[in-house]
Every structure is written in C-alpha cells, then in structure tokens.
Amino acid sequence: MVFLDNAGTTKMFEECAKTYSLYACQEFYNPSAVTRKSAKISMEINEVRSLILKKLGTMEGSVIFTGGATESNNLAIKGATRGGDYEYVFSNGEHPSVLNVAKSLQMQGKTVHFVKLKEDGKIDLEDLESKLNYKTKLISCIFVSNETGAINDIKAISCLRDKLAPNALIHIDAVQGFMKIPFSVEDFKVDMLTFSAHKFHGPKGVGGLYIRKLNYVKNIVDGGGQEYGLRSGTENVPGIMALKTAIEKIDVRKNYENVHGLKHKFNEIILKESEIKILDFQGSPYIESLVFKGVKGETMLHALEEKDVIVGLGSACSSKKAGNRVLEEIGIDKNDIISSCRISFNAYQSLEEIEKAAETIIEVYNDIRKRVS
Ligand code: PMP
User: Fold this and answer.
1) Distance 70 CA to ligand 1 centre (A)
2) Is residue 202 in contact with ligand 1, taking CB distance under 6 Å?
3) Is 196 near ligand 1, meaning CB less than 6 Å away?
C-alpha cells in the first residue's frame, strides 16, 4: 500500500510504540505525585519541553502539552480572547479548529476580522494591513496550509504587527510545518505556536502549544492545575515520551530534501497525462493536489484504494462536506475542486513506491475515463 494522505495523519514510528509501552506499562507513574519515581517522570517531561524549544529555535518560553492541535488552537485562541474591547484577526485559510473558534467569538459579539487569501494560497498582506490597529489583541494564522501546502510569510506578518498592531499576539498553527519545514520562532517573532505529534510519525492525541509568556492565555478547563495551570488533567506521559522519540528520530532538513525529490519525481510522471492537472503552490514539498478532468475526486479516491493507493480529499475534518472552502477562497474553479484529491507525502517513502503510485494514478484515471466516455 502507498499512503499519500500524510497531511491527514502519519504512520507512527515503531520506536514510538516501544517508548509508549515503556511509559504506559512500566514507568507509569503520575508525574504530579510526590514520590521519587513521579518526580523523575516530571523531570523527563520537562526535558521534552526543552527539546521542543530547541527544535523551535528558542530557549525562551514554555510548552504546554495538550491532547493535540485542535485543543492547542482552542487554548491559544479562547485563552487569549477573554474580556476587553479588543479585535481579533484570522485568515480565511484556517483549519476548522481555528476557524470555528473565530466564528464562535464573532457569535459572542466580539470584533473579528477575516483576511483574504491570494491566488497563490497565501494570506493577502494588504488585506491584513487594513485590518490591524491598536485594538488588535490576537492575529492567528496557519503557517503551512493543510489544504494547499502554501506557506505563509510569517515574518512579514510579524513586521506588520510591530508596525500597526503592537498590542497583538501572533499565534500560528504550525501543524503542517513543525518537524517538516526548517524555521525558528525567534526568526518569525511569534508568541504562540500549535503542533501535533501524529503529523510527524508520533502518537495520536498528543500535541502542544508553545507560548512565549505563560500569562498570554487563561486556562479553558478547570482542574488540578497541571501544565502551569493551563491544561489541567493528568499528563499523557506515554504520548509525550513517544512524541519525544519521534522528534529525536527526525532530521528536518534531510527529510525536506528527500520529500522534495519524491514530489519532483511524482509530478514528472503525472505530467505525462495532460488531463491531470497539478495544483502545486510551490510551498511545502509535502502537500499538493491533483485535478482529474471529468472525474470526481471521490471516485478517484475509492478506485485508487482498490489499487492500494491512498489519497486524501482535503482535510479529513472537512472531507465529509461538499467542496473545499480553502480552494474556493483562492479562486479554484468549482468543477476542478470536485475533481480534486489531495496528495501528501512522507519522508520515509521510497522513490520506487512513489513512481509506482503515480503510474497507478494515471492507469486508474484512464480506466475510469474509458468507462464513462
Ligand atoms: N491544524 C491543522 C493545520 C491540521 O492539519 C490539523 C489536522 N488535520 C489540525 C489542526 C488538527 O490536529 P489534531 O488532529 O491534532 O487535533
């Protein structure tokens, strides 16, 4: 089977399963208890925080472990938008775990602005500029689009913040960028950042929020006060330790180059079939879309599964809804959207399997076209 839906999730490394098992079955202690064994676990979790800060290119700030990116996005946004006569800015390219929080702020009567995307899939910086002012308290923007792979210029966003909205915090949803694309939070000058382990071969149900200063947010659940009081509940120790194992195994730059090569080869083969269009926004090498002229994306997805090639239909969270909000926003033709599938690679796939998958995609497409014409 060739799995080309790695933006949806990735296969966990075997090594993570071993770590998970060790901390679930042997080193199973509650880090909040006062025994020496618990203190050791608590120290180990803190070491994972330091490792993540290092990978983010900073020594400043903290990491709050959560149950994944949906929760991190909720904590960042709900936690930073309490009270006051403030304004909040979001891009139109956000994942539902940001977009739906923004919409609920709007329903509560808060002033919320949405920023357009340009044809290249990136946030429209001129539109952003027009929406920033002294009242802006938070700007939340996706780093790498889970739909298109377009990469937002976060440095340009923070420059605009410095110039026009000095009271605003910047939060980025870096789920499709962390451990995949080289960057640093120091360089980006962001205040909060969301990540999720299952997007980089770690376990599902664990992620985190990087936060430069803990007082940027208030807790959104009440409880025992774990994670600096910002995320109560006993820590998912096996998940956090398995996340560490995934981070330690990944060489971001090497993987980036590798995936670049895989995508290049894949596209070279796909281009041989002129009725298949590639929607490549020249952003992340990990993500692109294919448009199959005259055939629905969903039909292709199911036919490909029969041939052991798994592709995606936009984000899993939106795949049950018709259309694709982000592709529509950047002006992709409605028929093209219906005929599209999302392709997303991982760095551990071989050139041979990617070549084979591309050939299978062409074969399956031609087969369906013959039958429908
Ligand atoms: N943000 C982005 C950009 C994503 O791609 C996803 C996963 N589809 C999420 C947030 C939600 O992640 P999780 O599954 O960890 O809640």
Assistant:
1) 6
2) no
3) yes
109-123 confidence digits (pLDDT tens):
999 999 999 999 999
Calculate how far, in angstroms, residue 178's C-alpha sits from the geometric centre of ligand 1.
12
**pLDDT tens for residues 128-137?**
999 999 999 9
For residue 305, CA distances in Å to 2, 282, 323, 372 come to 9, 27, 21, 19
Residue 319 has pLDDT above 80, yes or no: no
Top mutation candidate among 5, 143, 199 for ligand 1, by most atoms within 8 Å of CB: 199
Domains for the chain: give ranges and CATH numbers.
2-9+251-372 (3.90.1150.10), 14-249 (3.40.640.10)
Q: Tell me the best of 148, 196, 313, 326 to mutate to test the pocket of ligand 1, counting ligand atoms within 8 Å of each CB and taking the most.
A: 196
CA of 248 to the centre of ligand 1 (A): 21
With a 6 Å cutoff on the Cβ, whether 315 touches ligand 1 is: yes
Q: Is the CB of 171 under 6 A from ligand 1?
A: no
Give yes or no for residue 175 CB within 6 A of ligand 1: yes
